[in-house]
Automatic annotation (TrEMBL):
<dbReference type="InterPro" id="IPR013024">
    <property type="entry name" value="GGCT-like"/>
</dbReference>
<dbReference type="InterPro" id="IPR009288">
    <property type="entry name" value="AIG2-like_dom"/>
</dbReference>
<feature type="domain" description="Gamma-glutamylcyclotransferase AIG2-like">
    <location>
        <begin position="8"/>
        <end position="133"/>
    </location>
</feature>
<feature type="region of interest" description="Disordered">
    <location>
        <begin position="124"/>
        <end position="145"/>
    </location>
</feature>
<protein>
    <recommendedName>
        <fullName>Gamma-glutamylcyclotransferase AIG2-like domain-containing protein</fullName>
    </recommendedName>
</protein>
<dbReference type="InterPro" id="IPR036568">
    <property type="entry name" value="GGCT-like_sf"/>
</dbReference>
<dbReference type="Pfam" id="PF06094">
    <property type="entry name" value="GGACT"/>
</dbReference>
Length: 145
């Protein structure tokens, strides 16, 4: 990875075990490690979440490092998935922004790309705890009617 190639902070359907992880990241990553995005809140969307900057919460996710030689392709594929057409484009669903505050498990802080809602996007209700994976039922947990 060159100095201009940032890792990606993913927090929804691109996380391990989620539908888009295998579709978009398989074979294109060198490493995926747990991370958190402080100063943001996670909001529900139509089948995917939005990390909304601001506030005192934090969003759980993973830091994705592109495999050697795969960065350009990965960047293009993620931009396509996230409906990001360029900075400030009026049809963007998300904006891709560099963020200097992604925190790793060991406390290290790194710079990474984060997709945040574009101005035309209206996020849904906050997701308590800031973790997209928490919305899934726990295997073996009792079901309520």
């Amino acid at each position: 990875m060159s100095a201009g190639e940032l890792p990606f902070f993913v927090y929804g359907t691109l996380r391990p075990g989620e539908v888009n992880h295998g579709l978009f990241l398989a074979g294109r990553t060198a490493a995926v490690e747990p991370a958190r995005l402080p100063g943001a809140a996670l909001h529900d969307g139509p089948g995917y979440p939005y990390a909304v900057p601001g506030g005192h919460g934090e969003v759980a996710g993973d830091l994705v490092h592109a495999a050697p030689g795969a960065y350009g392709e990965l960047l293009s594929e993620l931009d396509r998935l996230e409906e990001y057409l360029g900075p400030g484009h009026p049809l963007n669903l998300y904006e891709r922004r560099p963020c200097d505050t992604v925190r790793l498990r060991d406390g290290a802080v790194v710079r990474a790309w984060v997709y945040v809602p574009a101005p035309r996007t209206t996020p849904g209700a906050p997701i308590p705890g800031g973790d997209w994976l928490s919305r899934r039922p726990v295997p073996g947990a009792p079901r309520t009617p």
